[in-house]
Every structure is written in C-alpha cells, then in structure tokens.
Design goal:
Blueprint (H helix, E strand, L loop, with lengths): L8 E5 L2 E8 L14 E12 L1 H12 L5 E5 L3 H9 L16 E7 L5 E6 L5 E3 L2 E3 L3 E2 L6 E4 L11 H6 L1
Parallel strand pairs: 2-3, 3-4
Antiparallel strand pairs: 1-2, 5-6, 5-10, 7-8, 9-10
Length: about 160
C-alpha cells in the first residue's frame, strides 16, 4: 500500500476521538457518527491532507455544525492545511476550536528535530512577528528553535492575540 493510500482511522481514547493517517480520496467519514454535543478531536496522527481530502473534511464537518468541536494536538500537516484553507476549521468555533497544536523545532546544539505541543496562550505578538515559548531539545536539553518555514500558521492566531 502506498503512502497516499495509508489507512485512515478514528479511535476513541478516553474523552478524545483520535484521528490517524492520511486524509485523501480514500477517506470515509460516513461510518463515524458521534453522539456527544461536545466533540474533542486529537488530530496529532494526521500526517497528510490533499485537496480531495480537504473537500471530504469540510463535508464531514458540515454534518457536525450543531456540535461544539475542539481540536487538540493538531499535527503540523493539518495546521499547514488550515493556514491555507481556513474552511477546514469547524463552522461552530473557527480558530477558537484549536486548543493545542504541534510545532516542529530544531535544536541549536545537536541539530535534532523536535516537536512540542503548544497552545494559543503560549503565543505572543511583537510588532508583526508571532513567537512561542522556548522549547528545550528532548535529546540534549539545549534550546530548540522554530524554523520560519514551519511557523507560518502561527499567524492564524496573531489577530486574536493582538485584539485581546
């Protein structure tokens, strides 16, 4: 099975529905029928979403428009998609639906790739730049930095922070 056909799954783990895999033309949300009024989705397992997957995702969330939705641990792939197409956010909550998301960091000492979960409250805006909390490398403990290429979606939250 190729990477673009990797199986997509939704599993219940505690209070979260955990999404795992690739969202594309093979993804089927029709069998997923949650009953809760508040839906908490862990999106850390989404590794890729293509244009047809975006359409499928939006159609799925149209069926949930009367529900409150929270996104937790949103993967970098999904955050990149949301930054290009804000319609991927649930209609019921918009940006406020994102409770936490993953950011990729690179260690300044050992050059190791790291990932950290941050919340919108971890962000700060200085002039026209958005910053996040300092992250320590999980391998050597030295500071890790966010590369500019991986920080574009932080600007989704910039206006919200400035308006507070």
């Amino acid at each position: 099975m190729s990477d673009t056909q990797r199986k997509f799954s939704i599993d219940r783990r505690g209070e979260f529905y955990c999404f795992d895999g690739i969202i594309n033309e093979h993804t089927n949300f029709r069998k997923f029928e949650p009953k809760e009024k508040l839906l908490k989705f862990d999106l850390s397992g989404i590794s890729y979403i293509n244009s047809i997957g975006c359409k499928t995702w939006i159609q799925f969330f149209d069926t949930l428009k009367d529900r409150e939705v929270e996104f937790h641990r949103v993967s970098t792939a999904m955050m990149t998609g949301i930054s290009m197409l804000p319609g991927l956010l649930p209609p019921s909550g918009g940006r406020e639906s994102i409770k936490s998301f993953k950011l990729p960091f690179c260690c300044v000492n050992c050059d190791a790739d790291n990932e950290a979960v941050v919340t919108p409250s971890d962000l700060a805006v200085v002039h026209d730049s958005v910053f996040t909390k300092l992250v320590a490398c999980q391998f050597c403990g030295n500071p890790a930095t966010l590369t500019e290429a991986n920080s574009e979606f932080l600007y989704l939250f910039a206006y919200e922070i400035v308006d507070d």
